[in-house]
Amino acid sequence: MPPTKESTRPPSNESTRTRGAPQRLGDRLFAGSAVGAGVLILAILAGVAAFLVAEAWPALTADSDRIDGGDGIVLYIWPVLFGTLLSAFFALLIASPLAVAIALFITHYAPRRMASLLGYLIDLLAAVPSIIFGLWGFFELAPLTVGPTEWLADNLGFIPFFDGPASATGRTMLVATIVLAVMILPIATAVIREAFLQTPRLHEEASLALGATRWEMIRMSVLPFGRSSIVGGLMLGLGRALGETMAVAIVLSANRETVSFDLISSDNPSTIAANIALSFPEASGLDVNTLIASGLVLFAVTLLVNMGARAVINRRRDFSGAN
């Protein structure tokens, strides 16, 4: 019987690989170094967490009257945690539409040369030190907001965010949130831009072939594809906003014991990072442990935010031009 087509077919690459061919030395070294790097990151993270818990434990177990303020560790951390969450939330609220709009303009509207230049500038903006943003907010942005915040207090004072009285210096939570929004904008924009660039070309062309306008194509093809990356990029930016120190410390005229939603007054809640930076040089004894305890809370919040962002990114469905 002559050999059939099935019997004369050469073995596939997949069947060859499954025969247990020995790995090359370079492959084994690369795999080992990758695993070692992952284990090292986890070990460093666990070491930081252990250090924070050990150093914060005396403050966590101390009597309430021994904590600065005399109200206990919870009431010490709560105002600065509130200020941290408030500033980060409004910074994210400002940066979110801007990041999506900039990413869409770079990927689908701007000419190729302009898009390349804008992408480079966005990436360069992420490398600017935070203290530069803080100085810009203190010297330039804060004086510019004095007039508008007075108008907000006079005309929209019934809204808790603009209750006033408006600050005469402009060093308010509003300025701090704007500075934070500018700082997280490059990170969020870069992630979203890369997601939009990976949109399958066939999806876009199919939408246009069916008679959709450019905006309808973006709404039906690009935005659904990049939805999870949008969330992930914004959450990564939120992680930076939560831990920002120098920019907030320079801009904000803060009171550690204040809990207020007012964005335009001079009596602003502080943030955890700014409070640690300003209080640590003069702290001693149990006060140091109290500051480290607040740092432990910030570490936990930032870790949860970044884990949430990674979970959202990992859940993104893999698209291709065929599906």
From TrEMBL:
<keyword id="KW-0472">Membrane</keyword>
<feature type="region of interest" description="Disordered">
    <location>
        <begin position="1"/>
        <end position="20"/>
    </location>
</feature>
<feature type="transmembrane region" description="Helical">
    <location>
        <begin position="118"/>
        <end position="139"/>
    </location>
</feature>
<feature type="transmembrane region" description="Helical">
    <location>
        <begin position="29"/>
        <end position="53"/>
    </location>
</feature>
<feature type="transmembrane region" description="Helical">
    <location>
        <begin position="73"/>
        <end position="106"/>
    </location>
</feature>
<dbReference type="InterPro" id="IPR000515">
    <property type="entry name" value="MetI-like"/>
</dbReference>
<keyword id="KW-1003">Cell membrane</keyword>
<keyword id="KW-0813">Transport</keyword>
<feature type="transmembrane region" description="Helical">
    <location>
        <begin position="229"/>
        <end position="252"/>
    </location>
</feature>
<feature type="transmembrane region" description="Helical">
    <location>
        <begin position="173"/>
        <end position="192"/>
    </location>
</feature>
<keyword id="KW-1133">Transmembrane helix</keyword>
<comment type="function">
    <text>Part of the binding-protein-dependent transport system for phosphate; probably responsible for the translocation of the substrate across the membrane.</text>
</comment>
<keyword id="KW-0812">Transmembrane</keyword>
<dbReference type="InterPro" id="IPR051124">
    <property type="entry name" value="Phosphate_Transport_Permease"/>
</dbReference>
<comment type="similarity">
    <text>Belongs to the binding-protein-dependent transport system permease family. CysTW subfamily.</text>
</comment>
<feature type="transmembrane region" description="Helical">
    <location>
        <begin position="291"/>
        <end position="313"/>
    </location>
</feature>
<dbReference type="InterPro" id="IPR011864">
    <property type="entry name" value="Phosphate_PstC"/>
</dbReference>
<keyword id="KW-0592">Phosphate transport</keyword>
<dbReference type="Pfam" id="PF00528">
    <property type="entry name" value="BPD_transp_1"/>
</dbReference>
<dbReference type="InterPro" id="IPR035906">
    <property type="entry name" value="MetI-like_sf"/>
</dbReference>
<protein>
    <recommendedName>
        <fullName>Phosphate transport system permease protein</fullName>
    </recommendedName>
</protein>
<feature type="domain" description="ABC transmembrane type-1">
    <location>
        <begin position="81"/>
        <end position="309"/>
    </location>
</feature>
